[in-house]
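As described in the Methods, two query proteins were run sequentially through the folding procedure within a single session, without resetting any intermediate state between them. The first query and its resulting structure tokens are shown here.
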Amino acid sequence: MRRIVYKKQEAHYKWLIKQKCRLSFELFCQQLVANNAFDLPYKIAAGKIREQTVLQSVKTSNGQFTNTIEETIQTIVQALFPTDDSTQETHVQRKKRETLNTYSSTILVKQFTKQEITYAISTMKKNSPGIDGISIEIIKEIHDMNPDILHCTYNKCLELGIFPETWKKGKLIIFNKPGKDPSLPNAYRPICLLSVLGKILEKLLVFRITHLLHKNNKLHKQQHGFRNGRSCETANFRLWQAINIALQERVPATILSLGVKGAFDTFWRTSILFQLTQANCPQNIFNLVRNYFTNRSIHYFQDEEVWNFDNQRGVPQGSCSGPLFWNLVMDTALDLPLPQGSHIQAYADDILVVIRGKDKEEIERKRNAILEKLLAWGAEHKLSFNIQKTFQMPITFGGRLNLRNPPIISINNHTIQVVNSIKYLGVTWDCCLTFTKHFKALRDKTDSITYKLSTVANEFYSKRSGLFRKIYYGAIDRSMGQ
């Protein structure tokens, strides 16, 4: 009898513990999602928790492995952030440098207004602060209490053409690239945490330069990344239009997807400034941007150690002006005169070319002309193409091309890989244009995330229909609509 009572009490005790655990976890989830429906519970379910980077020995340029953490960091930084060697420049590149040294404009933009600064602050995300430790929340409080402080500071920077040195320092964070060999220096992705004060000034520059480019009709219509009125949807729709032209003309076509190697981290800053001169940039804006690019540095923190490195090329990944500056350079590739029957478009640093012709031989001839121009464009801006991220997909719909005998396309004697499908900005395009792989992937992704949400958060989301609706429209329905 006593054993039966004990078993009942033990079962009741376990039930109470389980109930308490569920209530505690539900309260914990409720606190997390109070301001953001896509916080930890969703991240766990969607597999969006980033694993901590563990640095190990990496292979140096001479084939040896590093022995210390300092050598590892130095090797990774040298691979990801190349130096700017002016001694190897071509005549065209030297002329561009001379143009910058002699550039002069009588045009000056007006001072930044308090309304511009307030708007720039309101668009800032709550990201980690830079080396100075000043967060966006602190900046908002200061600006609300006394807007004259930032107003005077930023306009003095504009007047003097000086971007403060302390705002040019970036705190380097390194992440592993999924599926990459960690012993290779290029298997890591760099992020620079910058001063929030500097990023606000970058925003103000972006507003003014974007207005200048828009007024002078310098924003290329085939660039779909980081542009108002452009998106992944418009890029995929434009790709379909280009393919549809070949289908209507009943001619063969192939898609060429090119990836620029280390685009944001390696491209030539002189190219950015040169494009600003071509847009007749106001002198005070030009001076401030030019100073922004001088004496930049990155700093890696490891316990009590700090390693400092010069940053001579590219724009920091994490900056507010990086996308705009990259588009300035990328638009020059979109303006290249390509053979008739060719279409080129870009989304940030992802370049896509659709080549159509009467037969396979004509496509190959056009390919030679296109790649010759693109390779020359890359060399001019100190960029190169990543062979591992460059693919060709022949359109086999209609039987005009086939995967067994596709057009031969090569870069620097390396034959480009032929694939039967390409994932472009969330949409999987297959050579037969059936989109079967795309729909299957979406179905699997939707099933997986809904199951994991119910598993991770138990009944938490089902009891809160409004919260679950946000998750549905923001993650599930959005992915199904891609």
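Immediately afterward, the second query was submitted; its sequence and tokens are:
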Amino acid sequence: MLAGLFNLCHDYGHSNYEKLFGLLNDVQQATAVSMKETKAKVLKSQQYMKTQFTKHAERHSPCLELCMSHAFGSCSESHPSCFPDVVRLLEVEKYVKETLPRIANAAEHDQLMEDLQDVMNTHTQYVSHLLRTKHQGDYYKFILANLQPGDAVVIVDYKMKLELGVRLREIRGTDNGPHYHNTAFLLYLCKVNLTFNLTLVEYNNFKAGEGKSMLDTHFVHISHKIVHWVRVGDNLETGNQLGELIGLMTNVKCRKLQINRSKAPDKVGTLKDISLYRSFQLPTSGTYSGGLIARIPFCSWQGAEEDQGADSSSVQPHPSNC
């Protein structure tokens, strides 16, 4: 799957399940209780989350854990069903907690309990990520299906770091998110509607892997092209060589951007808690015309929220910034 390409899927999904398998081995050794059947449940849960979970999640589902309306807010409809595959890991958690009191060593017991909680917290983040990804994909399809003449959707992403012929996975420590999610850029967007003959309606800053799957696929194709090029013995040492290689791919163009730093605007400070806000509307009428209306998205699953609630904030236009 994406374990070799995308860090969140690797850290939240693949690596976390490996940690859980290791935890079960430790519990088995400390309690002399066989974890064979429990490991089989974990493996089935891993396979289900990778291949079926997002297919089964719906805007409203009779199963609470698969109901996206509940995950992203509230759902007034009933949820009488329980889908066994989606709660399998919760059953594993319950069984392990019931087994741990067999351990006489208090320090070992507490450490394994803490490790179990860390694994389950990470699993909640994994589920939340999968649900947000599906939500963003559905929203993107909805927007495309309802475009009017003259409307357009623009998707932008960065390849965060490219080590020629060395690795495919992006290095999160070199994240370029601040380049397109910062106060100066948002205030620039406010000016666009006032300056150009177009109307920006909304700006969304998605987390990695959420809503940009088309570009993620594009990047991995480029990465594999580079790896193949180097492995067959061709040189790839400069940006110009990289551009020429990418230009050989079908429907791909490569351009060099020369940034004139001398024309960069003065620093404008930072909007409070800007990193929490991922969805921005740019109203053209009303109180906040020419400004921003921001919203914090959240996703809850089994009562655990990744972002602590949904909130919104507004920025009114001001001569000094918009």
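Residues 191 and 212 are 26 Å apart (CA to CA). We note this only descriptively and draw no conclusion about the first query from it.
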